[in-house]
Write the structure tokens for this entry.
Amino acid sequence: DGGITQSPKYLFRKEGQNVTLSCEQNLNHDAMYWYRQDPGQGLRLIYYSQIVNDFQKGDIAEGYSVSREKKESFPLTVTSAQKNPTAFYLCASSAGLRDTQYFGPGTRLTVL
Amino acid sequence: GEDVEQSLFLSVREGDSSVINCTYTDSSSTYLYWYKQEPGAGLQLLTYIFSNMDMKQDQRLTVLLNKKDKHLSLRIADTQTGDSAIYFCAGTNVGSARQLTFGSGTQLTVLP
């Protein structure tokens, strides 16, 4: 089955720790994205990648980092510099940068 | 940049039609999308409409686009309890190198 997987579904971390969220796709898409969703709000773009070895900051990149070493994978690291990291994180991919985006199931991160 | 606005809540009776509305600011938006999000899940693409169309129908879903008023609506016929979810509209912008701008989502509650 083609699709986007995110792991883990739930993640807990202590303040001051970095944590990495996984996103994998087997749709052969070039573009991948990370969004953050807070209760009662729409999605806000953290980072996006148009192609392997390239990525760009979105609207709320501070306190986050990404890498794109493989076409299938776009991991997101939430660093200790992120002031309010508790949120629902969604990964998406699309064939190209302006094409239809398909979403993974999300990871809920809770900072204790 | 693009701004997309939606009303936050809508309640309907099972079997009635639901109409979810969305307004956007960027008249150059090329594609406009509707996504559905069930509790704790990712976003599921429902349908989309290209900006040179006025209407698109797909089974129980009808999308209407009024370009003059920059107004987009999603009508769900014969609404069922399984349609209870958050519905997001989103638009792309030809002038942007990037991606989607999302509304804040409309929580649809279907009452028995």
Observations:
- Chain A has a mean pLDDT of 93.
- Residues 37 and 43 of chain A are 5 Å apart (CA to CA).
- Chain A touches chain B at residues 4, 6, 33, 40-43, 45, 48, 56, 58, 90, 92, 94, 97-98, 100-106, 108 (CB under 8 Å).
- The two ends of chain A are 36 Å apart (CA to CA).
